[in-house]
């Protein structure tokens, strides 16, 4: 029945509009986000409902982000990695992540090109946002990932495994041996070395 369908459509539309006006932060128009991401309008609506369910104010702060993320890794300590991940999502460095920030990052991680995913990963590893990755930054991220995976990883990891992992990868990436990895070095190393790419894909699975 067309009249009933139209009534349902109008009711849902009104409910959506009411929901959007009741939250503290109203996201950009879904049409605009659809153009900026690799999600359909319907997918964005579903994502928004889920985001709003977890974050009724329309934004998520770091503590809430850590609490949500910790649920996925009950056997390890996800707090440090969640901190770094939050900073990568918080592109404007305001201390809060809006729906637009969340869905833009998710679009890259789930449906972006290899180049887009690598650029995003570089930004994650560049903790102080100076445009380079140093060995300490890489060590901090890798150790945070190992801590998050917990003691139930197989095979059981030795305490010095993260350091060994970083030593090998950093040596391969720092092509001119100046102690830092630039974006170009990072992109080139990842795309020419299958071992590095496989490890990054494994790490991306925990995002």
UniProtKB/TrEMBL annotation:
Gene3D superfamilies: EF-hand
Localization annotation: Cell membrane
SUPFAM superfamilies: EF-hand
Alphabetized Pfam families for the sequence: EF-hand_7, EF-hand_8
Keyword Metal-binding in annotation: yes
Keyword list, A-Z: Calcium, Cell membrane, Ion channel, Ion transport, Membrane, Metal-binding, Potassium, Potassium channel, Potassium transport, Repeat, Transport, Voltage-gated channel
Lineage top rank: taxon: Eukaryota
Family listed: Belongs to the recoverin family.
Protein's name according to its UniProt entry: Potassium voltage-gated channel interacting protein 1
Gene from which the chain derives: KCNIP1
